[in-house]
Specification:
Rossmann fold; 2 domains; seven-stranded mixed sheet; Aldehyde Dehydrogenase, Chain A, domain 2; 492 residues; 18% strand
């Protein structure tokens, strides 16, 4: 902490963020558990200058191996800087893990792995030349595969995967490959081809898999029947840890895979997704990351609050977030505060305009209803007089202590949003009676509950503004709609 947050040694990125933290990293972080005081800043490294991530303690000419990006699964890729001292330490630890699994040294490696901006490609090349002899690579583009699948071009994704396997077969036939690094989906395609299975069993002495999960049954089948004479070892790689976690040596063939990180420098916690508390050994849980980071969807949230002047019944009134709502409040307040106060005839106008008397009455009502909340924007008022007897009703952001606070149901005819915490334990009670609910979540069980709740009108899953409407979507209106319980559900 002293080094990373020292003014002469810390990185510009962390030194700047230290000013906004409600604790002192150099004074308050004394144990490993105290690291939980830090907020999740992963989304903030999407657009930060790479130079700002390098600690000043490395001097004027830091030995940077490269700048790498995450896969971009949850939005724009995140960037990290890999420095040589860390690379060498991680490689040394990883190579010792391979030795413990029985990987012979000095072999030629073949890797079907992402290269380009992905850190896994760099680690493959370095592993191949430090633990092995030569490295042969086939570039796997995971972003393209995800794009094909998302656009329902499954046949094209299948063709691309077969192309990779075909090229791997050529290298396996013409080179003396002793170690194969591959993803489980591609390994499955190799296993489907009898000629390739025979070739791997003949030449390859070890298979290192990673990139996605391998279930215990498949692992057992590969180890005992498909590739019985080949060492099979998994690794759990992540750009955000600047490396990998290795499979624990000595696991039974029929066991699930257990990964050990480069501790104490890298650690993971497996937590209950509802309470975020660690689960017991062997219990199911979630690796400690936020399920969805609201920063990736800030544009959708802001537009849902302020679109069409925030005057519609389908504009967002309340936002509930898992975790601390304060950072989201700050971000919403910053965005809404930057919107200019303009007369209604100006094409760039966003906020609504009312006669001054009406605007004052609405402001007074807001201030009364907001009693007991924490104001982030509009706490002293929301009026901006135009000098012609009218006033702009500017945005308001207030933080709630609980999703059950009555203010969450208060609607105003201008951009006004109440932001509060929510956990699975709070249930659907705070969400009942919602006309349009946008759920930014990967929890299909939660989505199913929202769809089944009769008091929730339309359910939008993913990046969809709450005010979005179409002629085919039901709105409140006719008795027949009430009796038929019309409901729309749209998903990404």
């Amino acid at each position: 902490m002293q080094w990373h947050f020292g003014p002469e040694t810390g990185s510009p990125f962390w030194l700047e963020r230290a000013r906004t933290l409600p604790f002192g990293p150099r004074t308050d972080v004394k144990t490993h558990d105290d690291l939980m005081l830090f907020p999740n800043v992963a989304a903030q490294v999407r657009d930060v200058p790479a130079q700002d991530l390098i600690p000043r303690g490395y001097g004027r000419s830091p030995d940077v191996v490269g700048v790498f990006e995450s896969g971009g699964t949850t939005g724009a890729p995140k960037r990290v800087v890999l420095l040589r001292d860390w690379l060498e330490r991680m490689l040394h630890w990883s190579n010792l893990n391979l030795d413990a699994h029985g990987f012979a040294r000095g072999l030629d490696w073949l890797g079907l792995v992402p290269t380009g901006p992905h850190i896994v490609g760099e680690y493959f090349r370095r592993s191949a030349t430090t633990h092995g002899r030569h490295g042969f690579t086939l570039d796997l583009d995971p972003r393209w595969v995800k794009k094909l699948i998302a656009s329902r071009r499954g046949a094209d994704a299948d063709t691309y995967a077969e192309h990779l396997v075909d090229h791997a077969a050529f290298i396996l036939r013409t080179q003396d490959i002793g170690v194969l690094t591959i993803t489980p989906p591609l390994l499955e395609r190799v296993a489907r081809r009898d000629d390739l299975t025979e070739l791997v069993n003949e030449k390859v002495r070890a298979i290192r898999w990673g990139g996605t999960q391998l279930d215990p049954d498949s692992r057992y089948l590969y180890k005992t029947e498909v590739f019985p004479g080949t060492v099979l070892c998994g690794n759990y790689g992540s750009t955000m840890i600047l490396g990998v976690a290795g499979e624990r040596p000595g696991l039974p063939d029929d066991a699930g895979c257990v990964f050990d990180p480069y501790s104490p420098y890298v650690t993971f916690s497996v937590v209950d997704p509802e309470t975020l508390r660690p689960v017991g050994y062997g219990d199911r849980g979630r690796v400690m990351t936020r399920e969805v980071d609201w920063r990736e969807h800030l544009d959708t949230i802001v537009d849902s609050v302020s679109g069409h002047g925030g005057t519609g019944c389908v504009n967002t009134t309340a936002v509930f977030v898992e975790g601390d709502p304060a950072p989201l409040c700050a971000a919403l307040a910053e965005r809404l505060a930057a919107v200019p106060s303009l007369p209604p005839q100006d094409p760039a106008a966003v906020f609504p305009v009312q006669p001054l008397a009406t605007a004052k009455a609405l402001e007074a009502h807001l201030l009364h209803r907001a009693t007991g909340t924490r104001p982030w924007l509009g706490g002293d008022g929301v009026l901006a007089e135009l000098g012609d007897g009218s006033a702009v009703l500017r945005g308001a952001v207030h933080q709630l202590d609980s999703p059950h606070e009555p203010q969450a149901a208060v609607e105003m005819p201008f951009p006004c949003v109440w932001v509060g915490p929510w956990t699975r334990a709070d249930g659907l009670a705070p969400l009942k009676g919602t006309l349009v609910l946008t759920a930014i979540t990967h929890d299909d069980g939660l989505v199913a509950e929202l769809v089944a709740e009769p008091s929730i009108g339309n359910v939008y899953v993913g990046d969809h503004r709450t005010y979005w409407m179409d002629s085919g979507l039901p709105h409140d209106g006719y008795l027949a709609e009430f009796l038929m319980r019309c409901k729309s559900v749209i998903r990404d």
